[in-house]
Amino acid sequence: MEPVHIIGAGLAGSEAAWQIARAGVPVILHEMRPAKGTFAHKTGDCAEMVCSNSFRSDDDVMNAVGQLHWEMRAAGGLIMATADRHRLPAGGALAVDREAFSAAVTQALQAEPLITVVPGEVTDLPSDGNWIVATGPLTSDRLAQSIRGVTGTESLAFFDAIAPIVHAETIDMTVAWEQSRYDKGETEAERRAYINCPMTRDQYNAFIDALLAAEKTEFHEGETAGYFDGCLPIEVMAERGRETLRHGPMKPVGLTNAHKPDEKAYAVVQLRRDNALGTLYNIVGFQTKMKYGAQTQVFRMIPGLENASFARLGGIHRNSFLNSPTLLDDRMRLRQRPNLRFAGQVTGVEGYVESAAMGLLAGRMAAAQALGRDLPPPAPTTAMGALINHITGGAEAKTFQPMNVNFGLFPPLDEARGGRKGRKDRYPAYTQRAKDDFSAWLAAQ
């Protein structure tokens, strides 16, 4: 049997390889790291998480991301199984120890007899064979040039920003306190998963002034500042209005200052645990393009972080993706070359979970093809189906931008049309329908 080749061992490529091998089809997984790295990656491990350690909400009743988690678990996904084994307390979210997570994914793939990991960069799109391109937002320049040559169009791009990470021992816990928003979580550890730093009105306004005045990273010639709204740098949010951050990542709601329970903070900065040891915390929602020197000065204005030591400062990088509605069919194949499937962030989905989910689908579809079958996508009423429907035709091609999974991508419920059903009833109805339809899709294979 001819193997399926995968370019890129990120979350999408790793999940695709696992699904193909589970189907009994051999896989050759090509990965250029560590021989050829990127500025954002630090290791040569598979499924390295760069921007954050969170897979976001794990609520599969009221949240579309949680429903996507459910579907990936139901499909025997490697990424979700590994995340579950290396999860950290994070309230209602699924957060992991990044290094342990990627090391475990790497070990699982290397231990699978049907998967062969081949080091080295693939620079040209192959014209024959069964291939999946899962090179992510940091596709190498030479391969990106080959993609442009085949598709006849320039890849679109936006900028993805990285939040800073603080050494936990340098946070002043006489000022900050541990609490998840609204005390979410089933265990005490989950209810105390975040560290909160309160600000008064004066402190907040001084912080905004410093943020707006700070020296920023310049864009390279030919780059454009088209940000994805789900990952905006904090200074860009601040430029949209002084109160924007206070109603976004710095909102004070659902939190009570353990040191001063009678005082309501004007704004709150949250930090989320970043590793199993609890020695590192990332500043939630604080992606930035400030220069490093400016970052340390501005972030140390946050109460509780005056003496903070940073394990990593924020950064920003170009994120390339296809105009998938014009280029891919609903089997994720490139229309110009049907032997090529694309998966992950390069298709225009945004987020770790969404990327891995597209890898799962591409892997199953490629395996079916290798076995002489055709596998249609799941119904658009499912989280995976809603995503693939969006990127392969549901989105407007002229204005196509990366998208997280959300209930706005799901077909409306008949009884919810006209707003007759509230959110508390509508969301569980969406997720129950998705579970039923995804289970039926799996059963038909």
From TrEMBL:
<dbReference type="InterPro" id="IPR040131">
    <property type="entry name" value="MnmG_N"/>
</dbReference>
<dbReference type="InterPro" id="IPR002218">
    <property type="entry name" value="MnmG-rel"/>
</dbReference>
<comment type="function">
    <text>Catalyzes the folate-dependent formation of 5-methyl-uridine at position 54 (M-5-U54) in all tRNAs.</text>
</comment>
<dbReference type="GO" id="GO:0030488">
    <property type="term" value="P:tRNA methylation"/>
</dbReference>
<dbReference type="InterPro" id="IPR020595">
    <property type="entry name" value="MnmG-rel_CS"/>
</dbReference>
<keyword id="KW-0520">NAD</keyword>
<keyword id="KW-0285">Flavoprotein</keyword>
<dbReference type="GO" id="GO:0005829">
    <property type="term" value="C:cytosol"/>
</dbReference>
<comment type="similarity">
    <text>Belongs to the MnmG family. TrmFO subfamily.</text>
</comment>
<keyword id="KW-0963">Cytoplasm</keyword>
<dbReference type="Pfam" id="PF01134">
    <property type="entry name" value="GIDA"/>
</dbReference>
<protein>
    <recommendedName>
        <fullName>Methylenetetrahydrofolate--tRNA-(uracil-5-)-methyltransferase TrmFO</fullName>
        <ecNumber>2.1.1.74</ecNumber>
    </recommendedName>
</protein>
<dbReference type="InterPro" id="IPR004417">
    <property type="entry name" value="TrmFO"/>
</dbReference>
<dbReference type="GO" id="GO:0047151">
    <property type="term" value="F:tRNA (uracil(54)-C5)-methyltransferase activity, 5,10-methylenetetrahydrofolate-dependent"/>
</dbReference>
<dbReference type="InterPro" id="IPR036188">
    <property type="entry name" value="FAD/NAD-bd_sf"/>
</dbReference>
<keyword id="KW-0808">Transferase</keyword>
<dbReference type="GO" id="GO:0050660">
    <property type="term" value="F:flavin adenine dinucleotide binding"/>
</dbReference>
<feature type="domain" description="MnmG N-terminal">
    <location>
        <begin position="4"/>
        <end position="373"/>
    </location>
</feature>
<comment type="function">
    <text>NAD-binding protein involved in the addition of a carboxymethylaminomethyl (cmnm) group at the wobble position (U34) of certain tRNAs, forming tRNA-cmnm(5)s(2)U34.</text>
</comment>
<keyword id="KW-0819">tRNA processing</keyword>
<keyword id="KW-0521">NADP</keyword>
<keyword id="KW-0274">FAD</keyword>
<dbReference type="GO" id="GO:0002098">
    <property type="term" value="P:tRNA wobble uridine modification"/>
</dbReference>
<keyword id="KW-0489">Methyltransferase</keyword>
<feature type="binding site">
    <location>
        <begin position="8"/>
        <end position="13"/>
    </location>
    <ligand>
        <name>FAD</name>
    </ligand>
</feature>
